[in-house]
Each structure stands twice: as structure tokens, then as C-alpha cells.
Amino acid sequence: MSTTRAVPPSPHRTGPERDASGAGDRSPGWRDRLYRFDLRYLPYLMVAPFFLLFGVFGLFPLLFNGVVALRNYRLDDPTLPYWAGLANFTRLGGDEDFWNALYNTFGIFLLSSVPQLLLALVVASLLNRRLRAQTWWRVGVLLPYVTPIVASTMVFSVFFSRSFGMANWLLAEVGIGGTGDAAIDWRADKPHAWIAIATMVNWKWIGYNALLYLAAMQSIPRDVYEASAIDGAGPWRQLWRITVPMIQPVIVFTVVLSTIGGLQLFTEPMLFDLNAQAATGGPNGEWQTIAQLIYKVGWKDLNLGYAAAMSWALFLIILLVTGLNTLLTNRLSGGRR
Amino acid sequence: MRRPALSGRAPQDTPAGLGTYLLLSLTFLFAAFPLYWMFVIATSDDEALAKLPPAVVPGDQFLVNVREVFSLQDVYFAASLVNSVIVSTVVTASVLFFCSLAGFAFAKLRFRGSNALMLLVVLTLTVPNQLGIVALYIVMGRLGWNGTLLAVIAPGLVTAFGVFYMRQFIVNSVPDELVESARVDGATTMRIYRSIVLPAIRPALAVLGLLTFVATWNDFQWPLITLSGTDYPTSMVAVSDLASGNYVIYRRVLAGAFIATVPLLVMLFVGGRQIVRGIMEGAVKS
Predict the structure, then answer these.
(1) Is B250 domain-assigned?
(2) InterPro entries per the record (chain B) (predicted)?
């Protein structure tokens, strides 16, 4: 928190004295009262909109979710008993869809987050040179960041289509898969679907993470590199031995961000499906993620109570995995904490 | 083995070599290709899309495809663009106003509990709101807002990130002495906000505004839940509607997707410097 703050002068102390000294043809104190209000209460009014709006539309739903999870909340059947107890939670244990979605979510998460962050590191170190048109290279890597996921997913959907997709054509050119019957069906099994979806996620976030790393790289003190050059470290070694440990806090930050985002993956798996409205993530749930399953349970099966319980489960999973990943990253990137 | 090329200069002081430019060009191609190909498909006819090798140059059917997109009865594409503009503009304006106001209070004003309240803001930064989506739907149902733009606008009106970012910026860019002397001259808090703070934080407003607009425009999950099936979709919901049904016509879908992407590409082109700066500043401060 900041230590230097403007200390408001206190004319409301001298004010009354002046009033008392006689010149009382104006109403005695309204100015003073206004001043006191301005100093003492206005700050609360200024921060109030944030807390009010965040409270009503952010925090309250999150807590209320816990209540909904304990209820029978079916949009199509209001006659059920009000409370469900822990039924929604115990149901999770035996729900194959849930475990399947959890498996998919983690599979896609691993395939997307690891390459994403490693490639971002490489791109960042490319950008961390004295470049001509430096701003434009940085803007260029942000193209995916501003592109709506809805739009890019539709492009990738065509890219990975079986008969006339560019992915199959390119792969056939280098001898993988083929055309016609030999063509790869990217929507037929988990590994292929996961790779396709992970490709979309990687494409979207590499540039953004690269800029985060770049910012951290540029704040590394220059003399660190001087010392390393004397030791004879090459650029590659320099990256792994000096740069990565020095930007470790930002690496942890990106791991946290990509964990939180990756475990809530929704749009890509939704729209990769040829029959997107069903929200099944493939004919047999090959790539249905938890966020997608929550949507299906809540708004296709109309069981909001169960969807709420699932959201809470996801919340706990995210907390757990984020904590674990933070520890792991701390170790791997050579931090001493 | 000693490399003579390394003089001990920091990487950012080392001029990029040919290899770096080549690799960066590849990166750029990788980033830009899906966008280019979106345009190719949006300008093609069905025949061009059903052949191998796939089409890689734009066709001449863009206007035909666009006209089809706009004339589809139950997609409301034109309305969806207007809706997206309304939602994104209102949300952005509101975030800028409320977050700069709160950021100013936290940065420069003294009031009891301000540290505790700021800590609360920082804590809420990490809360994934998406997980409360079921309850949010119920809340909006009670308010009678589901299916209206209000349901999409209300949850975006303030962000913890906005308050945090504004506070950081104001702490560093508005000198305490300036605020003090304005006070001595009898300026009210709101007067100081208007004449001193706002002009000083213009760059930060640009950054936060661009990031907020992009994020709001691209939002999909919540708008889909509350708006799908109504006559008031946002453009993202409308594009996903183009892709629903038994037989998806991709040249149409991508013509729609392209139109909904262009505003953001223009923003990146015009405000790219600010967006880059916003992301990089966010990284160092976190």
C-alpha cells in the first residue's frame, strides 16, 4: 500500500473561527459542512459504486451459488422439495459425464498451457532485442489476443475439417494421414480433438504471454548480463540460466492465469462441435470440458442446482491446481522461495 | 567455449540479427494466418471451399455472403452489431468512470478503512466470476433482466482490475503537492478529479478503455446463456447462431465472424501501442 498520501489541509478548523469572528451575513456553516462532507464522506461515495456493483453481480452470485447447490433447482420441475441437502454433491462422484469432462479439461489444459508458455518465452526473447519497427512486432503478436474466440474457433473448425480442411491437406503433403478415407477425423477421438482445441488455445495466448514475459525481461538489471558474458554464456544458456530465473514471478503469474483460464475453457470446445447447440462436446463427449458440461446441465437439462454444485467443484479444483502449479513452477524455474 | 559475439550487452541492447527477424516473421505469419484465412473463406463460394488443395486467395463473393448473413431471419445480425456496440460502449464508459473515481480515492484521499477496502479489491481480482454464473442467471431472473442487454451490461460495469490499475497509475502520475495546493485554493474533491486527475491519467484511460472494450465485445459464455434465443443477441451470439443447425455454411459463418472482428482489428491498428503498453505494465506491477 502507498505510504505517501496527500494530507489534506484542515481549513475546517480555521473556518469556524473565521465565522465566529463576526462576518456572519452569509449562512454560517453550510460551506463548512460541505467541506467536511467532501473530505470525510465523499471518498466512501467514490468507492461505493465498485463495491455495490461487484457485490451484487460478482460476489453475491458466487456465494448464492453455494445455496443453489444445496437445492433442487430444476427449471422444468418446480414441484420438487426445496432442499436437496448434499444430493447434488454426492451425485458428482458417480457421474461419468463429470469425470469424463474433468479428464478432457485436464488433457486439453496440459496440451495447451505447456507449449503456450514455452513458446511465449521463445517469442519474448525474440522480441527482447533491439528491433526495427519494434512496436509493430509487438502489435503483430497481439492479433490473436484481440480476435474473438468465437471467430477464430470457426476458422480452426474449417482448418480441422475432415474432407477439405487445410490441416489434413498439409499433413498429407508431408506423408501423415492422407485424403479421402485416409484423412484424419479430428472429431473422432480424444487425442485428435484435444490437439485441435489446444492448438486454438495456444494460438490465442502465446503473444499475450510473450508480452508479459517481455515486460519482465526488460526490467532485468543490465549488469547481470555483463557478468554472464564474462562467464561465456551463449544466448540460449543465457535465456535459461539468467532470464528465466530472473522473471520467475511473472512466470508464476502466467501459470496462475493460464490455469484459471484453461480449466474454465468453454468457447473453443463449444464451437468446435458441428452440433454446437447440444453442448455435448462430440458425439460421445470426446472433448466436453467442465465449463461446457455445466452449461449443458444447467441450460439444456435445466438442472440449475446440479450445475451450481458442479461450479463449486470446479472452483475447488481450480484452487487446488493453481496452488500445485505455483509450487511446481517455483521449483522448475529456479526460484529460491 | 567462449563466444566472441557476446559483449555482455543486455539482450535488449543487442541489435536483432537476420535469424531473429526470420523467426519473428514466422511468428507473425502464425498469428495472422487464421485471420487472413477467415477473409479467404468469407469471400469464397461453396465450390472453392470443397476442393483440394484448399483455397488460399480471396474470392469475389464477399458481398454475396455478407448479404446472406444480414438477411437471415432468425439471426438478427444487424441488430446484434448494434447491441454489441451499445453493450461495449456502456460497459467501457462505466468502467472508466467508476474505476478512475475509486482509484483516485484509494490513491490520494484519506479515509478510514481505505487500506482494508483496497485489500478487498485486490482479493476480488483473483475471483473467477464465471463460476457464479448459475446464480447470476437466477439473480437476473429475479430482476427480470434475462434476455435483455441489461443482463449483459450490469455485471461488467466495474472491474477490480480497473480499480487496481487506476490506483497504481494515479499514485505514480498525480503529485501529492498538486492535490494539496488545489485543496488550499479551495477546490473540492470532484473539482480536483476533473481538472487534475483526469487530464493526468488520459493514457491509462486509453489503455483500460481499449482492454475493456475488446474483452466485452468478445465475451461469449454469459451472453450466450442469457441472450440466446432472443431477438437481442450480441454479435458473438449471432455468429454462433450462424454456425448452428444441421448444415453449417462456413462462408456465411466466417463472413459474419469477419465483420464482427473488423472493429477490433481497427482498434488494434489505431490503439496497438496503448494495448501493448497496458499488457506490459500490468505484468510488471502484478
Answers:
(1) no
(2) MetI-like, MetI-like_sf
Helices and strands of chain B, counted as H and E runs? 15, 0
Q: What integer is the mean pLDDT of A278-307?
A: 94
Residues 6 or more apart in contact with residue A12 via CB below 8 angstroms: A32, A35, A36, A39
Whether B44 shows a pLDDT value over 80: the answer reads yes
Closest approach of chain A CAs to the CA of B47, in angstroms? 11
Taking contacts as CB-CB distances below 8 angstroms, the residues of chain A near B132 are 58, 60-65, 311
Angle at B229 between CA B225 and CA B234, to 5 degrees: 65
User: What CA–CA distance (Å, rounded) separates A151 from A154?
Assistant: 5
Q: Which residues of A touch B37 (CB under 8 A)?
A: 155, 158-159, 166
- For residues B217 and A148, the answer to whether their CB atoms sit within 8 Å is yes
Q: How confident is the model at residue A27 (pLDDT cuts 50, 70, 90)?
A: low
Nearest residue in chain B measured CA to CA from A34: B188
Please give the Cα distance from B204 to B174 (Å, whole number): 12
* 3-state SS, residue B222: helix
Contact criterion met (CB below 8 Å) for B207 and B275: yes
- Give Cβ neighbours of residue A99 (< 8 Å, ≥ 6 apart): none
Q: Is the pLDDT of residue A1 over 80?
A: no
B146 assigned to some structural domain? yes
**CA of B234: which chain A residue's CA is closest?**
A150
Confidence of residue A17 (pLDDT cuts 50, 70, 90): very low
ipTM of model? 0.91
A182 part of a folded domain: yes
On whether any CB of chain B is under 8 Å from the CB of A160, the answer is: no
Range of the domain at A235: 91-332
The 3-state secondary structure of B174-204, one letter per residue: CCHHHHHHHHHCCCCHHHHHHHHHHHHCHHH
Same domain? For B45 and B149 the reply is: no
**Mind listing the pLDDT tens digit for each residue in B162-201?**
999 999 999 989 999 999 999 999 899 999 999 999 999 9
Cβ contact B15–A238 (<8 Å): no
Report yes or no on A297 lying in a domain. yes
State the total domains in chain A: 1
Tell me, what CATH number does A233's domain have? 1.10.3720.10
Q: Is B89 in the same domain as B48? A: no
